[in-house]
Amino acid sequence: MKKVSQKTLLEAAHNLMFDIDDIELEVLTEEYADILEAINHMQTIPNIDHVKAMVFPYELVTDYLREDVVDTPLSQEEALKNATKVEEGQIVIPKVVK
Description:
This protein is mainly α. It has a domain at 6-50. The protein contains three helices and two strands; from the N terminus they run αααββ. A hairpin with a 2-residue loop joins strand 1 and strand 2 (90-91). It is flat and about 55 Å long.
């Protein structure tokens, strides 16, 4: 399996506009190595293709959530009234990822 190099992590951090120091880079490199090792190990499990994928590992009761109530949505004009820049009916924001 392919390794994640420090160069790749630095490029990703740069593209995502994150500052990353040497200690964080070392920790991330080790964590990616552990993750890739676990993935590699999982691929050696026999008949893994027949196991149903889990969305979440725990059973959770969600009966405390409120009922959905149909309400009148905001008009486009009302939703855009506080936006600083609007083009073709959509809010324009600065690009944050290359």
